[in-house]
Backbone:
């Protein structure tokens, strides 16, 4: 780029100075991001180093970050101490059922509210949105009495059955995504003889992959880490989930100065693995879904 000062004089910006300033600016931002990332990952790294230490090394003052000797058997001992296998299986079953029910029902309801024109659909949409204003704890006691009268107390039904009736947040997100898809696709499919079920399964589901993968990640994480509902509805320890088992069986390591934090942290790492694996595998779709939702909401 040249800026003409006179007929015989021009000013050419120094490309070397501009390049150096740009490199400096990018470097500063990378340093800031690295410092923030390390500070956020430090608790996880500290948990990992405790899980690999001997129990006596955990209580050393001043504390040592790196273990002098790696105790890989802490994972085996921790799993055996809290009966990890059955609790893990219980959690997987409940989480998978909750995820399937929440995503499928929310996508179907959102499809009806966005692609099917019927009287009162805006009223129904506003009711769904309005229900988000109520905290979940408000309905805890009425729902407890409902499931108690239905003989569902101390069963898994209260933990995954509500998911099959839709999630207001997911319905809102899916509806916003559906609205970004042109109606001409529906009309073309109807001309070819497709019904709403065919349009939903053959057209909408492939086009909305980022949003329902985002729902899967959010639902899986929420159900996997749910502690309150298992605490309220489950009594028999053989039906417990991992979140309840980890909290309850922590007393097995008990004592103020004799707590076996190395075993507890090792088991906690195994407990955290499934949501982390799912997120890292599907993070591309998760970020794509959130970014697309931002653009559709602005429209």
Residues:
């Amino acid at each position: 780029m040249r800026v003409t000062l006179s007929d015989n004089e021009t000013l050419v910006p120094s490309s070397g100075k501009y390049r150096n300033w740009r490199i400096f600016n990018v470097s500063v931002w990378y340093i800031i991001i690295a410092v923030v990332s390390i500070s956020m990952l430090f608790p996880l790294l500290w948990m990992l180093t405790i899980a690999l230490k001997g129990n006596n090394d955990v209580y050393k003052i001043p504390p040592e970050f790196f273990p002098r000797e790696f105790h890989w058997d802490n994972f085996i001992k921790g799993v055996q101490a809290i009966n990890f296998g059955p609790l893990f299986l219980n959690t997987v079953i409940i989480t998978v059922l909750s995820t399937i029910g929440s995503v499928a029902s929310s996508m179907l309801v959102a499809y009806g509210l966005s692609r099917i024109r019927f009287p009162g659909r805006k009223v129904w949409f506003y009711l769904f949105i309005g229900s988000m204003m109520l905290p979940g704890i408000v309905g805890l006691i009425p729902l407890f009495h409902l499931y108690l009268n239905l003989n569902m107390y101390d069963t898994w039904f209260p933990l995954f059955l509500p998911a099959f009736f839709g999630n207001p947040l997911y319905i809102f997100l899916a509806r916003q995504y559906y609205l970004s898809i042109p109606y001409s696709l529906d009309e073309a499919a109807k001309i070819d003889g497709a019904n709403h079920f065919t349009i939903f399964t053959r057209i909408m589901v492939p086009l909305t992959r980022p949003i329902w993968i985002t729902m899967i990640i959010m639902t899986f994480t929420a159900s996997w880490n749910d502690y309150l509902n298992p605490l309220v509805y489950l009594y028999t320890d053989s039906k417990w989930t991992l979140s309840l088992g980890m909290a309850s069986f922590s007393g097995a390591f008990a004592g103020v100065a004799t707590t076996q934090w190395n075993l507890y942290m090792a088991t906690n790492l195994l407990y955290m693995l499934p949501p982390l694996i799912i997120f890292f595998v599907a993070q591309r779709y998760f970020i794509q879904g959130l970014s697309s939702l931002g653009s559709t909401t602005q429209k």
Summary: Residues 261-298 form the longest helix (38 residues). Residues 75-298 form a domain with the MetI-like fold fold (CATH 1.10.3720.10).
